[in-house]
Design brief:
By secondary structure, the chain is of the alpha/beta class. Helix content is about 40%, strand content about 15%. A 7-stranded mixed sheet has the order 3-4-2-5-1-6-7, sandwiched between helices. Helix 1 crosses helix 11 and helix 5 packs parallel to helix 6. Bound molecules: adenosine-5'-diphosphate (ADP) and magnesium ion. The site of magnesium ion has 4 residues, from helix 1. Dimerizes in the presence of ATP but not ADP; ATP-binding is required for double-stranded (ds)DNA-binding. Interacts with DnaA.
């Protein structure tokens, strides 16, 4: 059975892409077959895993808009068990091109049905908006993983996200569940970070992952090298915590 997880939060810069790349790489390192789906026109997951955005003719755009087969658009990454459906800048137009399409919210779901059994996990990195691309991700997903940055406005906008999730449940994907809420960029030196953790736990209760991702410079450096953290610096705190998150997602203590 495959598990399709959308990584979503309409706020930018909260750690969606960092989590997609690194959770994906850690699950793959633990022997799981993983497909990363980059549905953000910025293509940061694509470049973050070391695939050239401009060079690949293959992309999620071809699948969503040109009805090409998903199989022919998936590329290998440099890592065992880890595959990618890349994004490129063309995807920026898809949000509008999809408006007129038939079953426009179901494009990704139908495409993934063709390949999902080949993977243990499909992780979808969403753009920072609640438009049609994110709706495609939420419609295709079994669950949503919500990264929340430990900062002042952490909870702002989450009502809107939860509202979107419940609308999707009602109209497009009855089975959609919240996979978990991930606290990111935690800074133990600040009271603010500690307060945000308390607030988020009060709100989301047992949905909050035990694993909390601290602010870690190595994590922010890794994307420019096109490497997941466990390859870029396997001894860093960032590598340790994303491996811990992967184990938590797998239910391994
Ligand atoms: P999103 O995909 O939600 O926009 P990103 O994952 O791209 O967010 O993260 C935003 C920025 O913060 C990126 O430059 C990334 O490298 C950096 N970043 C993410 N998580 C951490 C972390 N735990 N520690 C330090 N920097 C981080
Ligand atoms: Mg991103």
């Amino acid at each position: 059975m495959s598990r399709i997880i959308a990584i979503a939060n309409q706020k930018g810069g909260v750690g969606k892409t960092t989590t997609a790349v690194n959770l994906g790489a850690c699950l793959a390192a633990l022997g799981k077959r993983v497909l990363l789906v980059d549905i953000d026109p910025q293509g940061n997951t694509t470049s973050g895993i070391g695939v050239d955005k401009t060079g690949v003719g293959r992309s999620i755009y071809n699948v969503l808009i040109n009805e090409e087969s998903i199989k022919e658009n998936i590329v290998k990454t440099g890592y065992d068990n880890l595959y990618l459906l890349p994004s490129n800048i063309q995807l920026a137009g898809a949000e509008i091109e999809l408006v007129m399409a038939i079953s426009r919210e179901y494009k990704l779901k139908y495409a993934l049905e063709e390949v999902k059994e080949e993977y243990d996990f499909v992780l979808i990195d969403c753009p920072p908006s609640l438009g049609l691309l994110t709706l495609n991700a939420l419609t295709a997903a079994d669950t949503v993983l919500v990264p929340i940055q430990c900062e002042y406005y952490a909870l702002e906008g989450l009502g809107q996200l939860m509202n979107t999730i419940s609308l999707v449940k009602k109209h497009l994907n009855k089975e959609l569940d919240v996979e978990g809420v991930l606290l990111t960029m935690f800074d133990a030196r600040t009271n603010l970070s500690i307060q945000v953790v308390e607030e988020v736990k009060k709100f989301f209760k047992d949905k909050v992952y035990r694993t909390i991702i601290p602010r870690n410079v190595r994590l922010s450096e890794a994307p420019s090298h096109g490497k997941p953290i466990i390859v870029y610096d396997s001894r860093s705190k960032g590598a340790e915590v994303y491996m811990e998150l992967a184990r938590e997602v797998l239910g391994i203590e």
